[in-house]
Amino acid sequence: MGEDEGSITLLCLTASSGVPLFCRSRGTPSKHQLPFSVIGSLNGVHMFGANLDVLLAATCTANTRVAWRVFHNSITLIVLSSEEGASDFTLGRLLDNAFSTMVLILGLEELVNVRNIERLKKDLRACYKLIDSFLGPLEKTGDLTQCVECVPVPHGPVLQECLEAFAGAAESRFGCLLAGGRLALATDPWWQLAPQELLLLTWLVGVLPPHTTRDYPVYLPHGSPTLVPRFWKPLLEPLQACVRPPPPGAVLPPGVLAFLLVNGEQRSSLSSVQPPGSRGEGLSPRGRARALRHFYALVTTCYFPWEGSPAPLQEPFQAGFPHRAQHCYVVSATHKAYAIHAPQHQLFLLLAPNVPTFALRPLATRALQRLTEDAAC
Amino acid sequence: MAREPAARQEGEVAGGGDSSSESGSCSASCSGDSDELEPEWLNSVQKNGELFYLELSEDEGETLLQDSSSEVSAVNHVRFRENEAEVIQEGSQKERKYEPRLKKFTKIFKKKNLLPKQSGKKGTGGGNGHSSGPTSILKHQSTQKGGVTIQQRYKDVCVYVNPKRLPNAGAGEKVKLLEALVGIVHQSSWSSRKAGDQNRNNKGNNEEKLVVHGLVPGSSAIKTGQILIGDALIAVNDVDVNAENIERVLSCIPGPMQVTLTFETSVFEHEGTSQQRYKQAQSIMNNLVKLLWGEDNMDLQLAIQGMPHIVMYLTLKLDSETSKDEQEILYHYPISEASQKLKSVRGIFLTLCDMLENVTGAHIISSSLFLCGKLVQVVYCKESDKLLVIGLPAESVPLSQLRNMITDVVRTLRFMYGSLDSAFCQVENISCLDHFFNLFFQRAIQPARLNSNASPSVQQYDNCSALLLDNLPAVRWLTLPEEIKMEIDTALSDLEAVDFAELSEDYYDMRRLYIILGSCLFYKGYLIGNHLPKEDLIDIALYSRHYCLLPLAAEQRIGQLVIWREVFPHHHLEPSEASDVTVYREPEARYFLLIVGLRHFMLCVLLEAGGCTSKAIGNPGPDCIYVDQVKATILHLEGVESSIEERLESPSVPCLSCADWFLPASRDKLESFTAPPILSKLQNKIATSPTSKRTLFSDSSLRTRKPSPSRNSGGSDNGSEGPEEGGGLNPLATLDQVQKHERKESQGSRGSEGSGSLFKVNKKKQILPNPFHLGNLKKSLSEKDMELCNAIKLTSGPENTLFHYISLETMQGIFITPTHKEVQQLSGSIHPQLIKNFHRCCLSIRSIFQQTIMKEKKKNSDSGSNSESRKASSDFNLVREHGVLFECSPDNWIDQKKTPPTMAYWVVGRLFLHPKPREFYVCFHDSVTEVAVELAFKLSFGLAT
To answer: Which of B348, B360, B883 faces A45 most closely, judged by CB atoms?
Structure first.
């Protein structure tokens, strides 16, 4: 599996001295790790350019993409990816998330003013798990959309009450309930955190070893990158029983292999690669996830520009359509995909190849209607 | 040399083409006449045999010139068609472009030396060759009374020179101080030396002017920025200099100091106020033509100067022996501040290229850099141990397109020079390459400014459109009625047979020089006839596209265009993979490209020497007989010009709608205070259509010398006309007023057309929109016409909802899209925007298709060894169809209370890989059901006739 999906390597170096801090990779056998000379030259070309005021951002060869980014003049991140669907957009998001992870766990101060490199190296180990989760083949899409992934829950109001009571007891305004790595419920102040923070916190819980309770200090990359709010991870046994959410998308028309619904205002998303009624058809769940992620990246870079955060390597040429794109579809050998840009929502659908092309549009419109009716997101 | 203030020299007036235009299309008389007269282009042939001769014709200029000097027309009458008096601007190109007009006289005399070599065979053949005595006198006279004058102006430039920093020259090699010290390259030209030897140069033989032929990079001369190529150095610190004494003068400079150089620059000006009109007309074309002639066009240059753009040819092999500065740079262009930065980071390109290839095992494709906050894309092409790098700002060219562009550049350079190495590593090519890349960047960064001349509908064809259409691996094809096509094909075949009298092998008892491999004919930039394999066609198309020949021909501008050069068509030179003995092997031969343009026609011919013909020795220049013959073919085809024009004027097949028609509110609003544009358009069309009909039925058939029966029995004639007409009116049928007009028109035409019965039949057909009602006609129609009929209306439903389309036949190397005229007819406020958006969207759709094609290729190539899982995993990127729905509303919506009406339309691209690769892009209104799209795709087969 790993072989045909290509490999991905993330390098972290100090920007000033070029000392490698860590190197995380997936898909490459450990002995094939990049030799230091390569790491050195990759960093070297970037540094040389920066000295001459030429900022090297990306390079691609026939099978590999490389992207560079310097954060706060102190940390250089370099990513090499030979994955099929890698694009400037996905790599840019990866670098962004990786650095935010480092801030979340170590705090910005630590990263900007590096005093003891050896200590920093040790501290950074704490980030590995979360960073690795961004490298791995993903079924989720939150890293790309930078939206928190939600899950609809039954008995919402009752649980909401419970949650608020609990948050109050913990002397915090921020509280949320996660189910299966996705957000089920949250207190109102929780939603006021930056979307990326929400996402990272959710993912962080996902990678922590299972415990009933957990006290974990975190820094918020956007809200308070230098303060240390404490983060609790309560796992509520009684709640777990009732949070057996029905898989979202029970209402979807047949033929839908996977979907992703993004709420542009709330910056939340709802997605599934295994909606009921789609089992056994066409692609494997992992294949669907990859196809959906690829489609999302394509549509977002080309047609539906994100008002909020432009992708770092957005080509100025791409953004210049004189008319606004509303819908978009792709027919490929293994699937069809359809995207709708509604005022509030964006819907990305993956459909079985046997769905006729002319039926895509009504089908997608219906799906959007049903999903937004649920109002879970 | 005496310095006369504002020395004047008259330009010349000469006829277009040769006298063959006078004698119609008879090839014999044509070449007969040209034996006595020598072609104008002959003196522009370069040492290496290459020729790029461009001469404009100017209708407006004609009358003016005849007014101003009646003698001229008298002279012209002897030699040329009266109504074809043309102004020849200095038409030489490349090296020759730097020669001042004063050399014109020199050239006239020089011809004699050229001639035996050029047309020796012809001379032995009993003809009187190209003896030029009387001609040159004639020419001489005609030059006295031209309308163009050149004013010589002087300018002083201060440069800093340091004789102490001179590089050491090898023993015995004389240092050229002018080059080493000042940085001015002057090549004492071969031509003038010859002329000088004969002591016939009327300007004084020994005092050859010091014309600036080039500037040494990094030298003080180039740093001033004021010395232009083509200037003539006439004094150093007020000491008159010429080729004779310059080295002596310069050697007197004792040490580092500032010297004042005086240059003479030529400024073209036209005489008299009566010629203002002419001048204006001229300026429309100026940008492109000036660029082609290689004149410094500051206007164009300045516009892109701030843009960081560069081309570099770097070597990865370091030679520590030579101590040259910047030795890893074999070539770079341009020398500007903005590109300097890109040049300074060449280390990045070299390192990345080398390192990433080692690490990933694949060649490097592209890089993205931020330069002063601007995103610059860099693409690479590696050939053995050399690296070609091209960088352009991302705002002008998207990366996917830039990749196509470097592929095209490499292909064109290989076509012209054989390989990148031979293009870049030879010193004599430098100025050609500078010109080449100047054109390249102009085309890339501001294509609209160059193409604006091609079509008056500038607004429709902005940068995106040019980017898309100019980079398709195909040529724009114009579908023509069968009979015209046949006529063209016959003419081309006749030419290709190389069977004209002078060339018969028996006649001269020697092998002919070349055989013609194939030819292709362009009219106004549209391909209308092709007898070349696809690869050769693309090679030639890329070349002509690069030199902007196609937009040039779209204007009534080309008096005469003759291009001749040795080429290296990949298709013939590369042996096919299967080195089987039984497989046909291309002969070891040399290939030459001959392009002749007359007015709107341009005929490209690929010649082969050395296969079954005699071997080409040295650098043969263009052979007059071949040029004449090609010219004769064009002249012969002039008869069909009107039919082609007719086709261009006629409404498109399939018919198109204008986007503005679908915004009902805006139409009402418009109607309330002015006549709606649609309506006035209609009236225009109606007014013109009966007359155009008449010309078709009388003129064209006469000109093409068709026997009259074909007119009457021509079921096919009617068949192909009827639908077109019907198609034009069909979209309008949605409007009420239209029907009124239609009725009026049919009445009117019945009245105007005397023999109306035939016409009535036509009219009936128009009224029936259903193509199946043509059933009884179909029998008489050829298959292709039938397809045309079916393709009238691609979309289903009562209204025609098709806005625009592009059909790319990758296999044949052609694409079809509505003509400029057709687009123009649909002008509205939204429609141009829509087309722009369509093209932009096609760019991104096409880049996705290209990925698919690439993957498919890869899959096929390693299908022998691969596993099934591999196939399955990469499949999800194999995009077949891609569509985007756009929404738009009128721009200037005044009514604040109501929300502006919106109109939604689809842009859909479809890739077919089987049976033959094709790409198809359509733009249609949202209201159509998507099944119709499938229909549209299917019907598109009918387009590519």
So the answer is: B348
